[in-house]
Design a protein that fits this description.
Shape: elongated
Strand content: 15-25%
Distance between the termini: 127 Å
Amino acid sequence: MIYKPPQQKLLRWIALFLIGTFLQFLFYIPTPVLSQNSNSCSNITAPLTPEEQTYARGAWQYFVKNYQPATGFTNSTGGYPSGTLWDMGNYLMALNAARWLNLTDQADFDARLNKFLTTLSSLKLFEDALPNKVYNAANSQMVDYGNNPLERGIGWSALDVGRILAAFDVIRTCHPQYNDWLKGIVAKWQVARSLKDGQLFGATVLPDNKTLLVQEGRLGYEEYGARGYGLWGFSAPKAIALEPFKLVEINGVQIPVDTRDFKSTNANNYVVSESYILEGIEFGLQGELADFAARVLDVQKRRYDTTGQLTAVTEDNIDQAPYFLYNTVYANGANWATITDANQPYPQFRSISTKAAFGWRYLFPENAYAQKVFDAVKDLRSPDDSGYYAGIYEESKQPNKALTGNTNGLILEILYYKAKGNHPLIASGSASVSTGKPSENASPATPSNQPNSTVKTPAKTSSNQPNSTVKTPPATPADTSKPTEVAVAPIPPVDSPQPSSQIKMERPLSVIERRYAEAAWRYFQANYHSKNGLIDDRSDFKGATLWGLGDYLAALHAARSLDIITPKEFDQRTRHLLGALTKLPLFAGELPGRSYDTRSLQPVDYGGNPAPEGNGWSALDLGRMLVALYNLKTCHSEYTAAVDKIVLDWSYLRVVREGILSSATVTKEQEGRSLIRVNPETRLGYEEYAARAFQLWGFNVNGSAVGGEYQTALVEGVKVPIQRHRKDSNSKNQYTVSNPFLLYALEFGLDPQMRSLFAPIFQAQAERYRRTGNLTASATTLIDRKPYTVHSTITGKGESWVALGDDGQTVPKGRLVSTAVAFAYHALLPENKYSQELLQGTTDLYNPLAGFYEGFYENTGKTAVGFTSSTNSMILQSLLYKVMNQQPLIRPTNDMKSPWWQEVSKGNSGRGLPNTATQQTKLISDSSGSYWVSRSDGH
């Protein structure tokens, strides 16, 4: 042995240290790390039940039994040592869930993750760029899908890269001490090679050994994969957009389908459950993807309703050849296709997917069908405790005994999502949005059926009416700050709340009618502000008007009368809303303003911007609320004192003038002064409706009530009313739509004068259908692009069937068939063949979690995506009208000694109360039915 001096040894050690440090930096091989203190990821707000703990332990056993100690990887399927990057992402998600669900301790977690990342750091990459599509899990060699070693590999999958990038983000968030290691791995990969033209591109090897880049991803998975890239700063804007897609009707549900087909692209455009489930539990369902997910769940329920076959379809391994299948809602032009990746059909092996059933159950915990299909698979574990089976074959009813990391990993991830209180696992602001041209795949947002409600985009165009119809906000508001949501206490408990309303029901709802009622009520569950009791006028904007809140109060009454909600929920919501009404700032100290922020309760202008001084009042909106408040105290008398206190706080001096209803607007001079202008209401149908409302409270508004002469226009051979003959009508932009006449008919019945207006409006629409075959249910709607407001008129600006913007300009191809109008016409005219056609065309236009859609476009049949309180309230009222034997929803009162009437009797109130303590309208019955009339009409 040759002796070396200590100095030589020291120099050698230093050199080795420097070389090692350089190599570690070059190849990024971190030393093992140990987890430190946990963060919010350990915040378990909804602990698993004992039964759910059994599910979690069962799923975790798959990874215990399929662990490869030499690599730290796990088998993609039971006993088969192979795995893709997607499978690795599944394992990381499962490992993280297992840690926070206390299925494994910290030492085991660290040991597993250190080994996994050590192997992953040293993987041989395809073309030294990105991980190969698949590796041998036992030795980490590049292989093909048959697990045969290949020196070069077979390419990469961009979708799989997106999946593991999402998993990396969860690990670095929940275990930040691993962040540098993960960053080093990602930095080593040439991720940019998988991005091109804003899309995701995979790589495949051709027979001549050349590499071909191929666009990857179809609707659902493409957006999910792109979101994973985005978490690490890699942008794929075209991939994260929803286009190109179309809606295909399956079992009565419009299902979004990617328009890129198999024949032209050699890629399947399948619609399955898993992409939407992953989106929901990891990123949170939002926007159109939330709507799409609900549709995909609903169509599977519809198949069950039709066939009796429980349905939960997605891609899965199976326990026999061909071993992997896509069980789909739709694929390559076929409904309910079960295919291989090569589009070969295997319908005999369609199965109920365990992971899909788990996903739907916990994404939509209140959905009865999701619970039902979950119950069928929740105990589908292997008897030897090796994890959950993939599913149950539909045809044979036997278990699909394939054991996979995908099924068991997703179950663990789902249960962790539940334990976190259904909070998405990844905090990300990215969202999939429509980027296509308006004339192509875009659908309108939530239209509105109310005359001047919901918040609108400020427009430079002027309106010829004193109360311009409000519009949708722009897609990107200038002010994105979120006001603090104020808390409002409900009014104190009322004396002896009644178990039900004093409404006489002639029959119960049918099973189908109950489904519709429950769907409509979902809107008011989904858009409820629990801190202050308010409801948004539309689902995509935090704003409310008095009209919209009147819709809500009417919906509350209908839902209780129909037994859709319990007496307790009705009482709690009613008291909370009444409490909020007492806190709304009054314009000029007189009346509630036009619009309020539903978080702060402060006045806002039509752009949603703060308007501390307010922006006027609407007599029409006030009328809507007065009707709802009147009916509340009439049918639920225990709230009388609270209701009267609210309306006695208001001043009516300027809203009722010389028998005419008037509304106030605010304009600003160049010097900055605010000027209030009060003008008569002239909006056809709405004015008559509001006038009847004021008459219920004793106001003399005969000048606005239905009656007198009306100017007409000839439409389809029918004389349709367009406006009153009177001097104070200063509107040059009148139009005729159905909505106000239907609301009037449902609530007040059709008196002879209103019937003379109502009948030709309906007849003209029916005649158009007979002539053209186009279903017609004319309404005012809101869309998500200019001109924002669209009036699908019967007649407007001298033209028939024109769609107009609020500025009076024509909107080509903008006409919609209104869901609410269809329901109301059928309730009022159930024997009419045209009303039956309308109902048939719109009854399936609902999202079981968000309510009924506004309708569909006449020219394309596409659903108008969006939800409003007005539409869903009218549907509930229509259903109530049906079971009341077509009696007016507004019932007469016998209590003329309430606080309101006592104050009126005193006279000289200084706030414009009626002159006499007598209602100016009354309910009568004759051979044509029951209806309310003005007392001055000779009755």
